[in-house]
Amino acid sequence: MSSSLVSLNTWVAEVAALTKPDRIHWCDGSEAERDALVARMVELGDLLPLNPQTHPNCYLHRSHPNDVARVEHLTFVCSENQDDAGPNNHWMAPTEAHAKIDALFTGSMRGRTLYVVPYCMGPIDSPFARCGVEITDSPYVVVNMRIMTRMGEAALKRIEREGRFVRGLHSIGELDPERRFIMHFPEELMIKSYGSGYGGNALLGKKCHALRIASWQARQEGWLAEHMLIVGIENPQGERHYVAAAFPSACGKTNLAMLIPPQSHAGWKVWTVGDDICWLHPGHDGRLWAINPESGYFGVAPGTSRKTNRNAVEMLNRDAIFTNVAVTADNQPWWEGLSDAVPVKDWQGRDYDPKNGPAAHPNSRFTVSMRQCPSFAPEADEPAGVPISALIFGGRRESLVPLVFEARDWQHGVLVGASMASETTAAAAGAVGVVRRDSMAMKPFCGYNFADYFTHWLKVGDKLTRPPRIYHVNWFRKGTDGKFLWPGFSDNLRVLQWILARCEGKVGAQDTPIGLLPNASDLDLRGLDNIGAALDSLLAVDEDGWRNEFGEIKRYLESFGARAPGKLKAECERVEAALA
Ligand code: GTP
Ligand code: SPV
Ligand code: MN
């Protein structure tokens, strides 16, 4: 046996001695294994079969009502040195953290099965892919990991060959928020998660490994692990560009990644490479190359409809797991925005009563293989990834921030990303709709000090002789009537079209203190009626408002102290001077 398998076996034995499971099951990732797990969960009531005519092989999982989202206040980065975690993370000393969480793990798997889940983040034969092993006592986690990652035999082979892997230990415990922690030990390549079965807290390959641990490794190794979608845009001439975009949780990544071109844009095609996580590597050709470490989507259900995201609706009619959605009388999954159908049971399984709030939980989700998406890009399996022409940052801002602007250069782009802010959403426990800084959409996910992260972004830029241009977009501006000013969804292609025309040097722009904005006449608005008045607001730069915003941005950057890169402060001062 290889030394890596010896160390994996030793770890499994140690965990079993601590958690005392009744059985140990090594997952091979096969369909037979999945079917057996599903059958068992159906028996136990953990999964409810949905309408087999309309949704063959689809299941509903209802989670504990207090376990429906990520818990940022219970998520810790436990580096040796507190400054390495930074003010953007909750921190606990590693020894204290291990002791605290191991106490919870003690005997936690009694009466349960311990599953060993080997997985690979990224195409199995990609030099950029990374492996991990999650130990969990949740069969729901196993079947979700099988969709979201390359899980099983092949991953185990790669681990055997390679040696290094990330260890993730997960137990659902009592689902008591008072006994819940998500802990990261970046120096040990280890994750420990207790007391939650929810996606981002429990599917450890996703946010815990592919963002928090990976971002730490990426800094040491010269690449970037980002909360970004990856999408290919093909124009009617057949020319294809790839862009990667970072929007905070529940701010539109899945939707942009599988956009359907508007009717006015015959001949345009959109290819989905990834919808949530992107690993970016500087290439030998001086460009930035992207892989999607995942193999499925764990997407937001509410708001998804034939009109807003037809690709998603079509990929969800078979072999999907739904979590915390409502159901109709004929047992189809339902959520707010899907259709005019009337739900009969809400997400908690109660008879639907509007007095109890929405039928589907606002953070209800679907899990589905990326291969089921009609716009699936085969390049998602390309070991080298895809070259990136533009990076886009964006947030939910009902005022101030224009529809789109371009950063002057990489350094300005890093400032644009670092100073991003967005309204909070139901993806994390806590208040919704509060504007907060969310640098690069990584506030909940950067596994190290943001000051060092900004420095690292600047360094990566120095390595690129053909860097992507950097943009900021905002689909969420509202008018005085409280309605969105921009139609969004399909029509976002119009903004991507301008971005790509800029990348190809085909259109000009208006120079403003905050960056380069489109001339209204350069936006392709064919077929968009009555957008005129809204466009004035969408493309305006409110200099008073921005002076105020930059006051806040400056204070935010100062909150990282001397560790924040001087170049970013200088860039901030440059914009402030232009606004003065
Ligand atoms: P995570 O999976 O949490 O990281 O989220 P995400 O960034 O992938 O967000 P997603 O695409 O699932 O969108 C979240 C919500 O925003 C859904 O309810 C969408 O319907 C809505 N949304 C997405 N794009 C647009 C848009 O262009 N305009 C408007 N108004 N809403 C949008
Ligand atoms: C997010 O919250 O950004 C998600 C869902 O993509 S989760 O994987 O649960 O974090
Ligand atoms: Mn996400």
Relative helix content:
25-40%
Number of strands: 30
* Cofactors and ligands: guanosine-5'-triphosphate, sulfopyruvate, manganese (II) ion
Please identify, by name, the CATH architecture of the largest domain.
Alpha-Beta Complex
Instruction: Note the overall shape.
Output: globular
The CATH class of the largest domain: Alpha Beta
* Overall residue-averaged pLDDT value: 98
- Total number of distinct structural domains: 3
Q: Main beta sheet, described? A: 9 strands, mixed
* Percentage of residues in strands: 15-25%
Count up the helices.
Answer: 16
Structural class: alpha/beta
Radius of gyration, Cα only, in angstroms? 23 Å
How many angstroms does the end-to-end distance come to?
Answer: 67 Å
CATH fold label of the largest domain: Phosphoenolpyruvate Carboxykinase, domain 3
Q: Which stretches of 5+ consecutive residues score pLDDT under 50?
A: none
